[in-house]
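INFO  loader      accepted 1 record
INFO  loader      residues=252
INFO  predictor   begin
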Amino acid sequence: MPQTPTSFDDLVAEAAAVSVDGWDFSWLEGRATEERPPWGYQRMMGERMARATVALDVQTGGGEVLAGVPGLAPTTIATEAWPPNRRRAAANLHPRGVTVVADAGRPPFPLRDDTFDLVVSRHPVAAWWSEIARVLAPGGTYLSQEVGQRSVAELVEYFLGPQPWTDRDPDDARAMAEAAGLEVVDLRTARLRTEFFDIGAVVYFLRKVVWMVPGFTVEAYRRQLRALHEKITAEGPFVAHTARFLIEARKP
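INFO  predictor   done
INFO  writer      dumping tokens
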């Protein structure tokens, strides 16, 4: 097994070169950890898929989460905007009989009204509530795990300084769902310990989760990265806290 590099330059070069397509974080195994939410989103999604007839996974990424569900609805569709992720999703999901549909990354969905008895989405960039309500069939359910407020704030503010953190409020999500005509039947929040064991893990994470430090590049942040590398080397893992919330809503 190849050895993990330890010098700043080697760690950064390795993390800057690896592919960040898809939504698989297995490259971080042994280099970062993130506590899991207590509700078990994939298990909950699987339970609802087992009862669904026509299902939709919005912003599927590389399809990794949907592909891990034991049984899918007889008709299951996934949408994804970014072409590299869409190719990966097709490879992961076509063998399971899932149709992967290109969307524009913004409303509207390229899908018919009142069609799906289940719509799911894990970590959507944004929840398009009016579109979710439009494509749900009467009595249908939307289940989503979203990134919450102040997620990984310690890492973001290390690079960007204090932030206003006005978005991704679970109460705002409830209000928008209700404004779209949906009934919120479950809303839970969690704050979870996250550790980065080397600077390569930080680089990889910020390259993959691009909205955390917008415009992040190694070149632009090399000075801060080197200082953080020295801090991790001297003091141990950099600790941050991810925020998650689960929301489930039903169309009357």
